[in-house]
Structure formats: C-alpha cells, structure tokens
Here is the input.
Amino acid sequence: MQVTETKAEGLKREIEIVVPASDLEARLQTRLFEAKDRVQLKGFRPGKVPVSHLRKMYGKSLMAEIVNQILNETPNSIIAERKERSAMRPEVAMTEDEGEAEKVLSGESDFKFTLSYETLPAIELKETSGIKIERPIVEVSDEEVSEQVERIAQNARTYEPKDGAAEDGDKVTMDFVGKLDGEPFEGGAATDSDLVIGSGQFIPGFEDQLVGVKAGDEKVVELTFPEDYGAGHLAGKAATFDVTVKAVAAPTETTIDDETAKKLGLESLEQLQKLVRDQIQSQYGMATRQKVKRQLLDALDKDYDFELPEKLVEAEFNNIWNQVQNELKQSGKSFEDEDTTEEKAREEYRRLAERRVRLGLVLSEIGEKAGVQVTDEELQRAMFEQIRRYPGQEQEVYKMFQENPDAVASLRAPIYEEKVVDHLLEQVEVNDKTVTKEELMAEDEDDKEAALAS
Here is the structure.
C-alpha cells in the first residue's frame, strides 16, 4: 500500500492511497481458499470446488467486499500512524468511472482513493489558577417560602358554584370561539375552559371583560393581541371572542395548615415548607451554576486563540442556525422583528459557533489531561432521565437508545463538559457574593449562547 500526502495546509490534510493490484489479488486468493471449504455447489464434492471456478462465480463480489473492507479500515489506521486526530469523519473519494472500477474488481488495476480531513489543533494548555470567579448566592427567606406555600394552597383550593355575577377571583367555565375579521382562527376555540378572573392566564383584556357575567350569558369579548405575542400571525391583531358562560364558581376559603398539606399528599405543613424551600434553592442553584460556568468559559475564551477545523465550525453553525430558524418560524417573527438582518444574524451566530468549537476543544483537552471520565453508570442515568421525559413512550425511547449507539454517545458530551467544569472550579479562585433574587435571575440580553443552550 502506497500512502502519499498531497496536501498539508493548516489543519487540512489530503492523503492519496494506492493499493496495488497484486495486494488485492493476494487478499482475493485468501478469500477464495477460505470459501473453498465452505461452498457447496451442485456437481462438486464438499471442499473440491476448483478455485478457478469459485473465482469465476464469486470473484467480483468478493473483490467488492475487499475494497469495502479497505475503505472501512484504512482511514483510521493511516491517521493513527501519522499520530493525528481527525476533527470529523474523513471524506473518501475514489473513481466514478465505471470502466476503471470494473478493472479494479476484475483484479486488472490498482485501487486508488483519496482521504480528506482536518486535524484537531494542538492546544497548549495555560495556567488557570489566575482565573477569578464570582459566585452569586441568594439566601431563601422565610417570607419567600411562605409566599410560595400560599400560592400552592390557592392553586389547590376548591370552588363552589354561585348564582350571582362573576367577580375578581371567581372561576368561569366557558366555551369560546376567537375570530379575526369575523372568521375563526386556528387555536382560538375551546370547550369547557376554566379561567380564574385575575389570574393573568389569558390575553390581557380578556379576563376583565368577564367581570359581571353569569351562568348562561353570551358575551362578545373584544381585544387586541399584544405586539410581542408569541404567535406572530396574531401579534398586534384586533380580535373578538364569542363566549358562552356555562358556570360561575366562587373560591372557598384557603387555610395554610397541616390539613392543606395532607390534601396535597404530604404529612404536614412543615414537610410542605421544606419541599418548597428545597425547590427554590434548587432553582437558584441552577441559575448560580449557569452564571459561574459562563464566567469560567468567558475567561477561557479570552486565553485561547487557535485555528479551528472549518467543518466542525460549519456543523456547529448549522445546528445553531436551524434552531434559530425553527424558533422564528414557530413565533411567526422575522429578523427585522429582532432589530437585525439575516446577514448580521449569520455573522453573530457564526462567531458563537466558533466560540463553542474553541471552548469544546479546550475543555476536551483539559479533561483528557486531567483524566476526566464519564462512567457507564452516569450514561445510564442520563439515558433514563431522557426516557422519563416521554411518559407513555418509555419503551419506544428505550428501544431507540438500544438500537442507536450514537444517541447514547450524544449524552456523553454534556456530562463530560460538566465534569471538566467541576474540575476547573477546583483549580480557580471562586468567591461567593450574596445578591438579590432579581440580580441572580436577570438574563443578559445579548447572551445568545445561554438562549441556545441545549
């Protein structure tokens, strides 16, 4: 086998491989002799089929198998021998001329093909001890816990039918049909829909117009959808809703005690309060983790600048761009609605793709040097967490993971990244800072990476 490097520009490599016809013939002869003892043909005793006859019948198909085996095995072995790492699966190119291909399969010609790939850049890791991280911390107050417990109790309260007019806080059961210019629109109708007046669940202006209605009333609600309404085809549009009131119910008195907790399936109010506190702390903890991780990645991004594999960047950009376009389509918005143009958006998300690839390579190198590993147990746990997201389809999702190793492998990357981040946080300086809830939960308007995080 002759291996010749024909291109070495930056990270790009092109390798020409020539497998002599004599090598192909030797492999074919080995296959034919192996087949001789197995093949049973009419008119021949077992093991007595002439090799020449086997070659005539199966030579081309066996040679095709040999060629495929070479294509499957050679790229990785050549790259390994060169002590390189390919950024993505190498591209293989061979002749498309049927005549030349026929000569190869007939053993009359050498088999030539080309490998094209990009290598992963060599990364010189830098000292991280100088990185300083400010970890925002919010202490959960008793008042916040009490407010949340009260909200839970109110949501769990019961309602009793009333004969009078609906007031703020009452629950109205209704049928309605939404219309634009007198014509019903998709998704604008419902039957036996419950709405608590003042809950803010419906479009602004809808609930206010239900104050005073009684069971059996028919009412036309007129309003205008907000300009920033999620469904773009409705944003800013004037609409009417034909409402038929079927029932009005008043809330019963809510109490915050052990009985309320028992109605929720808990043992006591104390247990409810603890669960609420733990939930709030968990929410704050996730927000803290996100901000700490962002600071760490920002610091690493400033420290590293190296050539990136173009195909890796292109693949990451395509993933981001598809997500952006899907979100715009679902919201019915355009780039103009976001105060930008498609060209500017492409430039911005291209930079984000480059940042992600760069940081991914840096984190991978740091993790490799530190011996970070993702265990089978961690992968299994992540897989079952994914399965639980699809109630009623658990068996189908589990089967998908069983039959698709790449799906399981895709769970590894985020686990590995978080473990490398944990490793780095032990190396850098982290200082806690008490902040308000509003400061912790505030999002940076320009934080496209967080908005597109998977």
User: Anything to note?
Assistant: The chain has three domains: 2-118, 158-253, 261-451. Residues 269-303 form the longest helix (35 residues). The domain at 261-451 is CATH 1.10.3120.10 (Trigger factor, domain 2). The first strand starts at residue 2 and ends at 9.
